[in-house]
Amino acid sequence: MEKDQVLDILAKHREELNRHGVKSIALFGSLARGEDSAKSDVDLLVEFDPSQQKIGLFDFIRLRYRLEDILGTHVDLVTPNALKLKLRDQILEEAIYAS
Question: Is the whole-model pTM more than 0.85?
């Protein structure tokens, strides 16, 4: 899957993602850098809208599964707060946000 395909699919499902409490979603990792292989997963950075109800673990897992259904591949879903400090700046710098 190409990065533009992923970003287009995410943009097309923006309304649905908003209903899941998503404020923003971005692609990062090997696919964003153009270093992906056939075995690569899709790494997504998600921020939730603080004005909506707090997202629990089961909501987070449901969102990940829904994203896997939409994209047709394994998704690694993380929030900015869950990023390891050593990698945080690099990930935030390379993140490509879906419109």
Answer: yes
Q: 3-class SS at 52?
A: coil
Is CATH 3.30.460.10 what the domain over 3-97 is classified as, yes or no?
yes
Q: How far apart are CA 4 and CA 7, in angstroms?
A: 5
38, pLDDT greater than 90: no
SS3 assignment, position 84: coil
Which of these, 29, 77, 20, lies nearest to 48 by C-alpha position?
20
The backbone torsions φ and ψ at residue 17, rounded to the nearest 5 degrees and listed phi first, read: -65, -40
* Dihedral (Cα; 33, 74, 10, 35), 10-degree rounding: 10
Residue boundaries of the structural domains of the chain: 3-97
* DSSP element (H, E) containing 43: strand 42-48
